[in-house]
Specification:
Number of helices: 17
Radius of gyration: 24 Å
Number of domains: 2
Structural class: alpha/beta
CATH class of the largest domain: Alpha Beta
Order of helices and strands: HHHEHEEHEHEHHEHHHHHHHHH
Strand content: 5-15%
Distance between the termini: 28 Å
CATH architecture of the largest domain: 3-Layer(aba) Sandwich
CATH topology of the largest domain: Rossmann fold
Strand order of the largest sheet: 2-3-1-4-5-6
Oligomer: single chain
Number of strands: 6
CATH superfamily of the largest domain: P-loop containing nucleotide triphosphate hydrolases
Helix content: 40-55%
Length: 411
């Protein structure tokens, strides 16, 4: 790793806010263990929380009428093209005959379900939810490529009555825009056309007794455009915290805002991983702390690389999408972490982290009261925190630069 400037440590308030994603009972147990110097107990409780967060399942149901672009949306939200390995089959006729799960290629705990088209002879709205196993899904995406009809409205009302959330997505708006531009090039007004589409969708649903429908306008081919970020923000706001975390990390890296949110989510895990390392260091078994630090770092740094799309597969797909040589995109990558993450690389990094580790350990012990008992595990805590914080900054910056280089704009 290149020489690093001092780590920008979080404020005391920011640190305490990061407890919000753990239950109140867990917080009290962790605080009690830390105050009492029982680092192993605190580490064990935090490890349980980390495992629960990592294993949190998220099941998203995608439905709509036949030919509305359901399967293409399933692929797009997973960061895949229609011809990629593992993609949902697409076509001009209904290709989904039963609920079909498509696990995220990098986050298998997140599954997008491609449901059969509503309104087909075998799937009518009055029996649809029972036929597709309604209880399996966290929320529903209802897609239409033209107008929302009575089938969409009845299904939405039934979902609402059974206590789950749904979101109306109007797909293929790029097709409408392109068709309008060809027909009326002189009078073309993209924003005005989008407003007309949204208004028409709302009026159709209101006519079917759906009150105050929210419509998200999307293109499956250019997911970063139109209302995708608004949909992402809505889901982020309305999902439970553990499912929000899974959803956010599984999003395709299509905008700088998504990269920023991923970095923010991963930053909130660093003090937990450092405390686990510290707790192991407090157990008097020679070599155990170093082995734990290396294992935590190898796993976490590999996940950073994957989550930010710096692995070879992701970079090649991005290059293909923007029609550029992958070497042209890779040229902006500075961190060695984007190229190789192994036990040997991590051990070399650990030997260079001493000064930063001491700074972090002293800061936590003096600034945050519940970390005042770091004692024997202080260096282990500081080392792990410093390494993860510095590495996350490096990888996130590389991902930021890669995206700008790929699209030649601040996407």
């Amino acid at each position: 790793m290149a020489d690093q400037p001092p780590v920008a440590l979080p404020s005391r308030a920011e640190l305490l806010e990061e407890y919000d994603i753990i239950t109140d009972d867990d917080i009290e147990e962790i605080k009690d263990a830390l105050k009492g110097g029982r680092m192993a107990d605190a580490a064990s409780k935090i490890m349980e929380n980390l495992q629960a967060l990592e294993n949190a399942r998220l099941d998203i149901a995608v439905t709509g009428e036949s030919g509305s672009g359901k399967s293409s949306f399933v692929n797009a939200i997973r960061g895949l093209g229609d011809e990629d390995d593992g993609a949902a089959p697409t076509g001009v006729v209904e290709t989904t005959l039963k609920p079909t799960p498509y696990p995220h290629p990098k986050h298998p705990n997140v599954t997008i379900w491609d449901l059969p088209g509503i309104g087909t002879p075998n799937f009518q709205s009055n029996t649809y939810l029972k036929q597709v196993d309604f209880c399996c899904y966290d929320f529903f995406i209802l897609i239409a490529s033209e107008r929302f009809k009575s089938n969409h409205a009845r299904l939405a009302q039934e979902i609402q009555m059974q206590g789950k959330r749904f979101y109306f997505v109007r797909s293929k708006v790029d097709w409408d825009l392109e068709a309008t531009k060809k027909r009326r090039p002189q009078a073309y007004d993209e924003e005005g056309i989008l407003q007309q589409i949204r208004k028409n969708c709302q009026e159709c649903l209101k006519a079917e007794n759906v009150a105050s429908p929210r419509i998200f306008l999307l293109s499956n081919w250019e997911l970063s455009k139109y209302d995708f970020m608004l949909l992402e923000e809505t889901l982020e706001r309305e999902l439970p915290s553990h499912k929000r975390h899974a959803f956010l990390l599984a999003l395709p890296n299509i905008s700088l805002e998504i990269l920023r949110k991923k970095k923010e989510a991963l930053q909130k895990q660093i003090w937990k991983l450092a405390t686990v390392s510290c707790g192991v260091a407090a157990v008097p078994i020679p070599g155990l702390s170093v082995a734990c630090d290396v294992a935590i770092l190898v796993k976490s740094l590999s996940e950073y690389r994957k989550n930010f799309g710096l692995d070879d597969d992701s970079l090649h797909k991005l290059a293909e999408k923007v029609n550029k040589p992958v070497e042209e995109i890779k040229v902006v990558i500075k961190s060695p972490l984007a190229k190789e993450i192994s036990k040997d690389v991590v051990v070399k990094m650990l030997t260079k982290a001493g000064g930063g580790a001491l700074m972090v350990a002293e800061y936590f012990a003096s600034t945050v009261p519940i970390f005042g008992s770091l004692a024997a595990g202080g260096i282990s805590f500081g080392t792990t925190y410093y390494m993860l914080h510095s590495s996350l900054n490096e990888v996130a910056e590389d991902a930021h630069n890669v995206l700008i280089k790929a699209f030649e704009s601040d996407v």
